[in-house]
């Protein structure tokens, strides 16, 4: 039997006094968390949700998400996590795509959820922490989790849809369980005495596996922040004695921008960065300011998510995504699928227990993504060094081709981050009549800084090849970001700028 919710059952038995979930004034012990999930499972059963049926979870980072999520798993159903900010049309797509029978949705978007569920026929519960507790208060607890196999789907997690309509990655009980177990034991080295910061969205695979599932499995406390705010995050770190911080690069940049004394975060033992490439300058500045190391890793929704990591017991290389985790293989290949020479760029491919079962009801897309030998094509361009450490060069689709020369945005962004006035930067390709594409950069200034665009252009020009530096640079108040805080290059607004 491999139901992922068995981890919660075990922790409720092994850590009866331990706080499992915190969110400001609300806290749940492991037995309280387990009992609430068991009542949700009963509620689902009474509404006709059978093992294998899909149930949407469209809630922010509060205990209600965790309770609903583990209740779904306990029932043997399949969770379909969704961004709570989705609009009716988007919700309807997720529900219809998976044939979901029910949806837990935040009251803040109850009207949108109501429209979507009316159109799909799904049952809709509009809940927050208090209303969910009241809804299940008088229900009996489902005695034991429904039996599931390692290969049974636990979660359908939709990809971002940057290359078309979102696809639902099927993540299994066995794959998710093994991924969190390896992370807890060999990477984050987290245990029941730890307090994990839960500011990554739980509907995203990074927050779900490394935050929620890992904390549940080892008996650690997960302290939740519904919406990321750097000053609030530091307040929680100090208040709750957070030892493990999980974040994306923009969160580390935001924490740096607070100028808070490192004494407030002295409880931090380790920080983990993923979801996007961490600029080396941000890593260096953060570790100097806060005195806590950052271990950078790499993964995707389709890989549960962790594929590689800068392991704590090995050399840590700044700018690298580390080496494959236990039970996982990685390689770099050319367009023909042949491994490239060491140090040469190519597409990263991944094989192991972490790779998804496939895309929900999309056999052709699954076959295109996972080859006959089990290698998953990531769509990321990378390279590997002589020590087996991998480096992300960029996304294949973000590659800029200027006059026949390949330009990888990340390389130019790293250079921009080295400038003392730059807080955030994003490099994109701009249409050009003769060159095909020209290099553009949107930049956010650090607090108190005023950037001279010509000076910044010259700064980059002096540090990269002539065909790579951005001819067009513009200052913005902020950069568009996805739900995890990842910068969305495709959503950047380009002003009319004179050619340089």
Molecular structure report:
Residues 411-486 form the AMP-binding enzyme C-terminal domain. GO terms for molecular function: medium-chain fatty acid-CoA ligase activity. Residues 10-360 form the AMP-dependent synthetase/ligase domain. One of its GO terms (biological process) is fatty acid metabolic process. It holds the Pfam family AMP-binding_C. Helix 10 links the parallel strand 11 (244-247) and strand 12. With 500 residues, this protein is α/β, with parallel strands linked by helices. The mean pLDDT is 94. Helix 2 (30-46) packs across helix 3 (63-74). The protein folds into two domains: 6-382, Rossmann fold (3-Layer(aba) Sandwich); 399-491, GMP Synthetase, Chain A, domain 3, CATH 3.30.300. The termini are far apart. A nine-stranded mixed beta sheet has the order 2-1-10-9-11-12-13-14-15, with helices on both faces. The radius of gyration is 23 Å and the shape is globular. It has 14 helices and 25 strands. The protein has helices at 6-14, 30-46, 63-74, 88-98, 110-120, 129-136, 173-187, 205-218, 230-240, 249-257, 280-290, 363-369, 409-417, 453-461, and strands spanning 19-23, 26-29, 54-58, 78-81, 102-105, 123-126, 153-158, 168-172, 195-198, 221-224, 244-247, 270-273, 294-299, 306-309, 323-324, 328-333, 346-352, 358-359, 376-384, 390-395, 400-402, 405-407, 422-432, 436-445, 472-475.
């Amino acid at each position: 039997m491999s139901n992922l919710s068995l981890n919660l059952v075990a922790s409720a038995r092994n850590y009866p006094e331990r706080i499992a979930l915190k969110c400001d004034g609300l806290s749940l012990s492991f037995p309280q968390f387990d009992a609430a999930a068991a009542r949700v499972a009963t509620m689902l059963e009474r509404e006709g949700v059978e093992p294998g049926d899909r149930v949407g979870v469209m809630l922010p980072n509060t205990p209600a998400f965790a309770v609903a999520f583990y209740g779904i798993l306990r029932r043997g159903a399949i969770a379909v996590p969704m961004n709570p900010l989705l609009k009716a049309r988007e919700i309807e797509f997720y529900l219809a795509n998976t044939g979901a029978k029910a949806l837990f949705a935040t009251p803040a978007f109850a009207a949108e959820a109501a429209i979507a569920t009316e159109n799909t026929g799904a049952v809709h519960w509009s809940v927050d922490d208090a209303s969910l507790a009241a809804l299940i208060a008088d229900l009996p607890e489902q005695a034991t989790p429904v039996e599931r196999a390692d290969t049974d789907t636990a979660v359908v997690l939709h990809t971002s849809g940057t290359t078309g309509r979102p696809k639902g990655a099927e993540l299994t009980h066995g794959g998710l369980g093994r991924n969190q177990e390896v992370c807890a034991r060999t990477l984050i080295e987290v245990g029941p005495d730890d307090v994990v910061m839960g500011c990554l969205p739980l509907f995203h695979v990074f927050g779900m596996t490394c935050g929620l599932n890992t904390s549940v499995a080892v008996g650690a406390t997960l302290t939740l922040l519904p919406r990321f705010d750097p000053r609030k995050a530091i307040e929680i770190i100090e208040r709750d004695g957070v030892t493990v911080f999980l974040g994306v690069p923009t969160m580390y940049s935001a924490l740096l921008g607070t100028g808070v004394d490192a004494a407030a975060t002295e409880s931090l033992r380790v920080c983990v960065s993923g979801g996007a490439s961490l600029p080396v300058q941000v890593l260096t500045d953060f570790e100097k300011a806060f005195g806590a190391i950052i271990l950078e890793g790499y993964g995707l929704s389709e890989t549960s998510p962790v594929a590689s990591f800068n392991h704590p017991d090995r050399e840590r290389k700044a700018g690298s995504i580390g080496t494959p985790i236990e039970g996982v293989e990685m390689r770099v290949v050319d367009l023909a699928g042949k491994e490239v020479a060491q140090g040469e760029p190519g597409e990263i491919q991944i094989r192991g227990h972490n790779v998804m079962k496939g895309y929900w009801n999309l056999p052709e897309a699954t076959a295109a993504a996972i080859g006959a030998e089990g290698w998953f094509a990531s769509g990321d361009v990378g390279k590997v060094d002589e020590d087996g450490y991998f480096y992300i060069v960029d996304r294949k689709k973000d590659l800029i081709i200027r006059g026949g020369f390949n330009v990888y945005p990340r390389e130019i962004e790293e250079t921009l981050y080295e400038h003392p006035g730059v807080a955030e930067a994003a490099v994109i390709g701009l249409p050009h009549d003769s060159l095909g594409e020209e290099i553009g950069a949107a930049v956010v200034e650090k607090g108190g800084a005023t950037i001279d665009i010509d000076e910044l252009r010259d700064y980059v020009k002096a540090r990269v090849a002539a065909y790579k530096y951005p001819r067009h640079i513009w200052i913005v108040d902020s950069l568009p970001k996805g739900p995890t805080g990842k910068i969305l290059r495709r959503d950047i607004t380009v002003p009319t700028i004179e050619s340089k």
